[in-house]
Amino acid sequence: MLAYTYIKQGDFRLLDKPKPVLKDERDAIVRVTLGSICTSDLHIKHGSVPRAVPGITVGHEMVGVVEQVGSAVAGVRPGDRVAVNVETFCGECFFCRHGFVNNCTDPDGGWALGCRIDGGQAEYVRVPHADQGLSRIPDGVSDEQALFVGDVLATGFWAARISELSPEDTVLIIGAGPTGICALLCAMLKHPRRIIVCEKSPERRQFVQAHYPDVLLTTPEECLEFVRAHSGHGGADRVMEVAGGDETFHLAWQCARPNAIVTIVAMYDRPQVLPLPDMYGKNLIFKTGGVDGCDCAEILRLIAEGQIDTTPLITHRYPLNRIEEAYQLFESKADGVMKVAIEGIR
Ligand SMILES: [Zn+2]
Ligand SMILES: [Zn+2]
């Protein structure tokens, strides 16, 4: 089968590999019908994910059809259409039982697919702990509608959940890339008083304006002044930092009102400075981390009800055998690309 493979730093290649087989009674084999490329895939390509194993098939955003299940799998059956979770988790350890599945202590726990074990930019993928890692896609929800459930949309949903949004809040979202848009969609579910999106790219600001006309838009240069002018108490009540730039961390806490919640969703390339003397007395609550992707069933239900729609994010489509071109486009951010859908075998 075709499998897009991490060879070494800077080198991904489409190889012919054997089809995966069940290795454990809790595994499932999924035929990938639609996948995508994530910025984390580029991080692997650029060598900034040291735990990524050379030789593995990359890709951790996908939907497909269950082909085969191990004897201990109870939640899905062959023929089921499923969304695949970026995170592998056992469902039984201390962290899983508390919903902190990102910190699952199983040897396969955390971000394994397409990083430490073979992922889904391929015709087939083996999913460990299939009862946790696969969510049945409701009838009437298309592959494109479900494509981001297990990764960027799970991240946006988690970010909105831990940000504890309420209807009185002015919410600032820094960054309108795919994850920022997913955070925006999930923030909108909570109907806050006002949402402000800060984004440096004019193309992406235009995307937000075209699809979500009620959202207020600003640029990093004007953000601080804009947020102060458009919020009730000298700053945003809730800030979600999704951009991950060198200046955006500072912008996030500077734009927050005293006692605000600042949620750091972004993954930074470099350490960031927390200037405690400058923020003394502001009494901020920082929440940081990587997604706990344990709400996929609820997210799929919201999609089925028409409350979340991420399909506008799919700006380009390529078949798996042209994934090279898809990477070039995604990496160059050309042609207004937000997300690329990679079509597998139907
Ligand atoms: Zn990802
Ligand atoms: Zn666990």
Detailed description of the structure:
By secondary structure, the protein is an alpha/beta fold. The chain folds into two domains: 2-151 and 292-343, Medium-chain alcohol dehydrogenases, catalytic domain (Quinone Oxidoreductase, Chain A, domain 1, Alpha-Beta Complex), CATH 3.90.180.10; 154-287, 3-Layer(aba) Sandwich (Rossmann fold). It contains eleven helices and 17 strands. Strands 3, 4, 5, 8, 9, 16 and 17 form a seven-stranded mixed sheet that branches. Strands 12-11-10-13-14-15 form a six-stranded parallel sheet, with helices on both faces. Strands 1-2 form a two-stranded antiparallel ribbon. A hairpin with a 2-residue loop joins strand 1 and strand 2 (11-16). Helix 5 crosses helix 6 (178-188). It binds zinc ion (ZN) (2 copies). One zinc ion binds next to helix 2.
Question: Short description, anyone?
Answer:
This protein has 346 residues and is of the alpha/beta class. It is 24% helix and 25% strand. It has two domains: 2-151 and 292-343, Quinone Oxidoreductase, Chain A, domain 1 (Alpha-Beta Complex), CATH 3.90.180.10; 154-287, NAD(P)-binding Rossmann-like Domain (Rossmann fold, 3-Layer(aba) Sandwich).
